[in-house]
Amino acid sequence: MSSAERRLCRLGDVTVSQNSRRRPVKSTERSSGPYPYYGASGIVDYVDSYLFEGLHLLIAEDGENLRSRTTPVAFLADGQFWVNNHAHVLQGNSFSDTRYLAYAVGQLDLSRYLTGSTQPKLTKGALESVMLDLPPLAEQQAIAEVLGALDDKIAANTALAANAERLLRAEVDVAWLRREDRSSTLAEFVDFNPKVSVPRSESAVYVDMKRLPESGWSIDGYDHREPRGGARFRNGDTLLARITPCLENRKTGFVDHLEDDEVGIGSTEFIVMRARHGIAAPVSFLLATEARFREFAIQHMIGTSGRQRVAASDLAAFELPTPDFAWLDQFGERVDALFAAVAAQARENRTLAATRDAMLPQLMSGKLRVRDAEKAAAEAGA
Questions:
Q1: Residue 340 and residue 121: Cα distance in Å, rounded?
Q2: Which of 55, 93, 222, 329 is the most buried (most CB within 10 A)?
Q3: Bigger pLDDT: 325 or 2?
Q4: Got the DSSP string for 114-155?
């Protein structure tokens, strides 16, 4: 195949498989370390050694996610890392760019290549038979650079948000939660399920349980529904999923995407937490996701094993130290500013992701020129 023309080809003809180097290690036999340990849907652990080095394409080999696509089935791993036997490991050869392949495979419908009804599987042979409409190598690299610039900006914003959260948590821990006394309760700082009037409209912002993050605080989008039943909330409220397994997975988000007077609605399984008057709104989120509080919440869940819940009244009784209120006022100014900055970055990430997702199929099909995509990416903030 010439490297200067667009061709329809098999994935196996333009990649080098590294599957023979994979090795699964049971969780009980892993030693903790700095190297990512990848499975079918991404990083599942960190270990003390590595099998691979450099940029590789990982593609899920099995699991329901091959059909549901709730997380990417094709993703890049770089640096030094380990891979178990649930992800195929590939690199592009002289005809293909590894980064480009991640985007190309990621947007394909792989359903006809799968086997197994209860546990979908993408065998090595089936993966190698996947057909790609591959442009020349130089064009692949240019496309990957444009899309990669958008993803790099998203990753940078996400990293800044994570660093901000770590700094805030460290300060709360040292200045407040490590204090020796346990003379206060959470109810002194947070209102639980505060009363909010039903929105006077035919449609209201609706936050689904699946939208709550397991890390960070930004809620991953929202829908619109008729405003009846369920939790009601405003900007600055914290939404905590009180049902198993969501509680164990820290499904908790901070509401920052509503208009000032807008009311949102959500699941009846949400507990709404609002910082009391005079306390910065994000404090409710930092307390709701504090490790000792989460353990307390899990210990107070009741119900059958498959449908356990925690009550707001139990959470309100959580004991914690009385803070230095002068510090809490000063901290409130800093936390408000940081949360506002991260909210702006989250909005930018949504714009960047929408731009990438709109451009991707157009670039892959050749309908969008790279230079036009570069202009659109720059306008989106990449």
A1: 43
A2: 222
A3: 325
A4: -B-SSS-B--HHHHHT-EEEE--HHHHHHHHHHHHHHHHHHH
Of the pLDDT bands very low, low, confident and very high (cuts 50, 70, 90), residue 1 is very low
- pTM equals 0.80
Phi then psi for residue 131, to 5 deg, are -95, 135
Q: Rounded to a whole number, what is the distance in angstroms from the first to the last CA of the chain?
A: 34
Indicate the DSSP class of residue 24. -
Helices assigned H by DSSP within the chain: 65-68, 98-106, 124-128, 137-172, 282-288, 291-299, 312-316, 325-365, 370-380
Task: Give me Rg for the CA atoms of the chain.
Answer: 24
**Nearest partner of 258 among 288, 237, 289, 229, judged by Cα:** 237
Quickly list DSSP for 80-102: EEEE-TTEEEEEE-TT--HHHHH
44/90 Cα distance (integer angstroms): 19
Residue 359's nearest CA partner among 103, 66, 74 is 103
Say whether pLDDT at 201 is over 80.
Answer: no
